[in-house]
Specification:
alpha+beta; disordered N terminus; 338 residues; 15 strands
């Protein structure tokens, strides 16, 4: 053994002596914990592991043992995630126990469900982007969505689960535009805009092709604006009131900006505008979108009248990370008129 090796060996023993240690006769079940103002395990001094105090050459020498407090921390984190997830009532739906025969008794339906099951299982392993299940009531959509959520929770990833009635109910707190709310669903021919009247507790309008990840409703509840399409709709009739997209793009050019063409947005609809809001008097709209100005990329906020006049920028270019938002027509600014 060289002199250097001997020094290293001595230094290693010094380091090991500083590590939290336990007698070799002790077992994990004998470890104890105590609760202080900030929890710290007395068995491992908060390190999460310990080593046995045994001589060099012992089979347990140098082995790092996970402390029991780690399993406590994992369970505590799981309980916290589950409480916030709203998944407790569907906790039983997991991929390991979800069988198509439990949902259907028709072979063709079972085959379809099996295909959707495989896609859902793959998505849960790498939940990037969107996955959408369509089908009639009782076709297993909720089972699969819950299974995805439960698997992510078990992996320690945060999840929020809503079924449609709960989601609509929660909108009552999110919107205040004359007690009418707008939301979007996926249809066979594109995105559908829905208007829900909270006062009467029912949907009062659907506008095929009018939906977007962001939509705005005027304060008096008469107009819906789809910023991605630049279209104004009449809430009562569902009819198109004005198509302002060309006006908006022309004003963009006139003010020295061009759309950020690095990202085409969902369905190739572009990334300007993205989100919008009405003024309190319903006469103006504020909106944002992804732009380029002299090689600088970011978001800029504009305002205009509801007729598409006086389109004016009210900010300069605001730098953001556009990879997710611009590719999905999702605004990171979410402009509100205040």
């Amino acid at each position: 053994m060289s002199a250097v090796d001997c020094v290293r060996g001595r230094e290693n023993r010094k380091i090991l002596k500083k590590m939290p240690q336990k007698n070799s006769s002790e077992t994990k079940s004998e470890t104890t914990t105590k609760q202080q103002n900030s929890y710290q395990c007395e068995s491992c001094d908060g390190l999460g592991w310990y080593t046995y105090n045994v001589p060099v050459g012992h089979e347990s020498f140098g082995k790092f043992i996970n402390c029991t407090c780690q399993s406590i921390d994992v369970q505590t984190n799981l309980d916290r995630l589950l409480k916030k997830s709203n998944l407790s009532h569907v906790r039983k739906y997991k991929f390991e126990t979800l069988v198509s025969a439990d949902v259907f008794n028709n072979q063709s339906h079972i085959d379809l469900f099996t295909t959707a099951y495989k896609e859902a299982h793959n998505y849960a392993k790498n939940p990037v982007g969107w996955i959408v299940f369509t089908g009639p009531n009782g076709s297993g959509k909720t089972h699969l969505a819950a299974a995805i959520g439960n698997q992510l929770i078990d992996k320690g990833q945060p999840v929020t689960f809503f079924d449609v009635p709960e989601l609509i109910d929660s909108f009552k707190r999110w919107f205040s535009n004359e007690n009418k709310i707008a939301y979007t669903s996926f249809g066979p021919r594109g995105l559908i805009a829905h208007i829900y009247d909270v006062d009467v507790g029912m949907e009062i309008q659907t506008i095929p092709g009018g939906g977007s990840i962001h939509v705005a409703v005027s304060p008096d509840g008469t107009l819906l604006f789809n910023p991605v399409l630049g279209r104004l709709y009449d809430v009562a009739t569902g009819e198109l009131v004005a198509d302002l997209k060309n006006k908006v793009l022309e004003a963009l050019q006139e003010n020295g900006y061009t759309p950020d063409t690095r990202f085409q947005g969902q369905a190739g609809l572009g990334t300007f505008p993205m989100d919008a809001d009405f003024s309190p008097d319903g006469e103006h709209i504020v909106f944002d979108g992804a732009v380029e100005e002299n090689g600088e990329f970011g978001l800029v906020i504009f305002r205009m009248t509801t007729s598409g006049d006086n389109i004016t920028p009210i900010t300069g270019v605001i730098e953001v990370n556009p990879v997710f938002s611009n590719g999905n027509n999702y605004s990171q600014l979410n402009p509100d008129w205040v």
